[in-house]
Amino acid sequence: MARIIPMALSIRPSLSSSRSGFVVSRCSPPYHRRLSLSHLSSAMPQFQSFGLTASKLFRGEGGRISVSAAGTVAQASTATTQENALKWVKKDKRRMLHVVYRVGDVDRTIKFYTECLGMKLLRKRDIPEERYTNAFLGYGPEDSHFVVELTYNYGVDSYDIGTGFGHFGIAVDDITKTVDLIKAKGGKVAREPGPVKGGKTVIAFIEDPDGYKFELLERGPTPEPLCQVMLRVGDLDRSIEFYEKAYGMKLLSKRDNPDYKYTIAMMGYGPEDKNAVMELTYNYGVTEYEKGNAYAQIAIGTDDVYKTADAIKLCGGKITREPGPLPGINTKITACLDPDGWKTVFVDNIDFLKELE
């Protein structure tokens, strides 16, 4: 993705908008205002995305429809529209593409990731007119692997990570050997290798030069070593429902640890041992976190950013960038916030592959 700075939100007209183009006859009684069917159709684009068109609405005399009837029909059709949206979301070809975050020295971070974590520098681009640089690193090609996108903004050498972001997860064959290498390279080990609290998986924690934590998980060979992004949420059940319905993810596993007062849910598009997943963590009694300004967003591929945006709206999500092409590169995207305010960008699958070319 070329930008991680939030873009202006374009406003879509609604029935109550003074700029909607609706003409109301002053001589008609209040409960018999008439709207042309074509105007009503243009005011409900999200319904059209999922098979509910104006032609299915109740008609009045002369092929026109009353405002009161439209409200009744819109309310009655909500369940049908949501059902169609959910069906489409589940069929959509989605994959976690990359995670975006800001760093204070991109060359220093590249050196650490390649030498200590075994990543490869996949591509790097400098945008001097916008005063930022991007670097993409990972364990395989971007068209088939989840990768990190580092962003360096000219002149900014530090950021606030906040309390909401947790860590990234990397699967390794030999955790002790990996930790020893990181120590030899001068890296910071925040937790020595050992079983996870309340479980048996052997883990360790290290920090990169900017303070981002990485959880190392000892497991067998996997096609997706960069395997997790952990974010803290204030209501786990609410988040699970949203990620399932709006993002089309599956609840892969859920584990409660009452002794340590936290619950985690693994959400993703495929098995944890073969795909990158979201690890959503709820700490008992904590409903809000500081987001800081370091972590930016997750990018997810989709076959249709317009339908994706409509489905997110139907699920109560907040769209922060209406769907459409990015200036200059024409890659179609849409951006939204989850119930906790974590940002996600959806990218058109075909446009993404063209961008890689």
UniProtKB/TrEMBL annotation:
Keyword Repeat: yes
Highest taxon, organism lineage: Eukaryota
CDD domains tied to this protein: GlxI_Ni
Cofactor(s) in the UniProt record: Zn(2+)
Pathway: Secondary metabolite metabolism; methylglyoxal degradation; (R)-lactate from methylglyoxal: step 1/2
PANTHER family reported in the protein's UniProt record: LACTOYLGLUTATHIONE LYASE
Protein name: Lactoylglutathione lyase
